[in-house]
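The methods section describes the discrete structure representation at length, but only in general terms. Each protein is reduced to its one-letter sequence and a matching series of backbone shape codes. I believe one specimen quoted in the main text would settle the matter. An entry of this sort, consisting of the sequence and the corresponding backbone structure tokens, reads as follows.
***
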Amino acid sequence: HTHTHTRDEEAALSTLRRRSSSPPQIRAEMGDGGQDINANPLKGDVHDGDQELERALDRWLLWDQNPKTKAEIEKLRHDGKKKELRDRLCCRMTFGTAGLRSSMGAGFSCINDLTIIQSTQGLLKYLERCFSDLEQRGVVIGYDTRGQEKSRCSSMRLAQLTAAVFLGKEIPVYLFSTYVPTPFVPYAVRQLHVAAGVMITASHNPKEDNGYKVYWENGAQLGAPHDKRILQCIEENLEPWQESWNGNLSDVSPLRQDPLNEISALYMEDLKKLCFHRELNSKTSVKFVHTSFHGVGHDYVQAAFKAFGFAPPIPVPEQKDPDPEFSTVKCPNPEEGECVLVLAIKLAEKEGARVVLATDPDADRLAVAEEQEDGRWKVFSGNELGALLGWWMFSCWRSEHPDPSDVKNVYMLATTVSSKVLQALAVHEGFHFEETLPGFKWIGNRIDELLQSGKEVLFAFEESIGFMCGTLMFDKDGVSAAVVVAEMAAYLETINLTIVQQLNNIYRTYGHHISRTSYFKCYDPATIKKIFDRLRNYETESQYPCLCGPFKILHIRDVTTGFDSSQPNNKSVLPVSRSSQMITFTFLNGCVSTLRASGTEPKIKYYAEFCAPPGQSDTAHLEEELNRLIDALVKHFLEPEKNGLIARV
């Protein structure tokens, strides 16, 4: 790639060599000490000194009424395990991209009975401050199927304790009587007009983890400034109140209602708004296999297929029922691809089913695989499914809105680390496209703003297989996505196309978008910080890199500091997010790549994409170039051997 710099490019490159630290005005705008809590630290700052530890230990043993977790801390004390005690007791969880999330077990840094009670007491106090009618409106609470025997910690029990905190203070509670998909909670928040929703789930995380996801009254995940203020309220209400440990309160209190039947019926009825080919669905010869990954999805996906007029999908029997051990998969994340879809693919081949649908354990995300003519299976990436569903949702909308001027009011959204394929669709078709920071909390709150200003949102997605078809709720939903993909496949069959063939049609029309996403595991937050700090002080202090191996960098955006060299004032258009590490590089060859610390898991993720103009068909060259660039990115910027990073298997 020989290339002569234009004057603009020279100016851009010189900007990268300038100071990378954020200007004082950005720091001032952050407020609250510049801490936008958007990423879970794996372990908080642990101060040395036994006084702090002794105080934390005394509090834990005084407050914890769960015999298993209490005994766990007592044993660590007896064995003199000071470092582990500090890790568990001298730091607290913070709100990340999916709320509070940590391993189940004893200690203030873990998910357990006591920390859930404390979190709920803080949430309740904050809600009282925000809603004068909290005693009339109440809250909704849902849970998944996770559990851990050694700490007697199950999602259901944690949900009951969450309910007990509210009921003990005379706040009405809509507590689901059984496990539900995560999207049912944001859906119920809006349907029941409650003040907030809580979902106990760790989604697709390892079996050891659990989490506490909070939705605001608009049905979107909690964001700034509420997250920081709730953490403050938690700190002020750490001692459990009298009724907070009464897990049976939800069984006897007249203020508790079960919204399960009402919400399920409303959801399935609302879902029909996304159905455009009911008659065709009832006759299709396409067969589907569904796996619910040992989680909540089976019953709900079956019901969704019925709502769309389909025959039921064939369930994977070994994975149909809840199992907190996730015993048939190495990890309960369908995003890992074919290696975790072995049973589903095997069943599909036996049953003559061409399409596999996999919902993750809390059914808010969806993976899809299709059998190819040569007998191999294609597992679609989140970006490929985003392209397909974006095309499909727009095609269905267009069939009902023939007036060309209607399109001016239509929006689609994606997170900034996802493919720009929707942007290409938007430019070509005339609708609007917007991008947000990673995490559906950003998408959900932006969609709420758009709808309030009279806009129409058809679709939103994130590359980590999270999709929102329509606006049933302001969060990702694997149940609706599964049945919408099924209808798309059934329709495509009538015009003799497979899903893969249609994906290639989309790329031919709107331009090939070739992307790769992967990660390294890193269990040490200090190492993660060191990697990103090095990029901000690359060869000299406060200077970003101008090259990555042989590849020239044109622009850099660092949302952690608010710096963006592509903007006239060097300020990022996306919100500053100080405690989440994320830097995006735009290369001279047109590739865009992002390095980011995960907000839910101990991972450094990397994303890279080439966007070719429509008509360019030499994709092999682009793929080769992309792979070379990613190799350079990993070697020069992440330095996995030096930093002890664990590669994705």
